[in-house]
Design goal:
The protein is of the alpha/beta class. The chain is built from four helices and five strands, in the order E-H-E-E-H-E-H-E-H. The longest helix has 15 residues. It is globular. The termini are close together.
Amino acid sequence: MRTLILHSLDNDNPKHKTVLQNLVKGAQSRDNQVDIFDAVHDSPENLHIAYYEYIAVVVPSLQFIGAKPVKKLEELFASCGSAAGKKGCALVLKFGLSSNKMCNVLMDQLERQGMKLDYFEVIENAEHSVAVGKKIG
């Protein structure tokens, strides 16, 4: 299955890099063809959502308390085509007390784009990300 891991993780943070690598390894262990796209640094012109069958969206929980929608994702989906009808999952990297709320906010944001979510999870640590990656796809 052609799978896209769309993330807004910090590339300079070693924990974020490890989590992303573990997600990719886990997804590839299920014979998925995995591509990674950085929503913050990569150019939206290089992304064509229609090509992918499954979209995994990974974001960090940025606030210790409270959660807000990721504006960069809305801009990205607006410029890269429709995600309507695509299967996907919402994954949040744990930080602070509001990671579950951030997961709910992300799920609502993706469902408004028309995605059909079949999985959601708060990633506790790098070891947990291996098990989460095996459920992608």
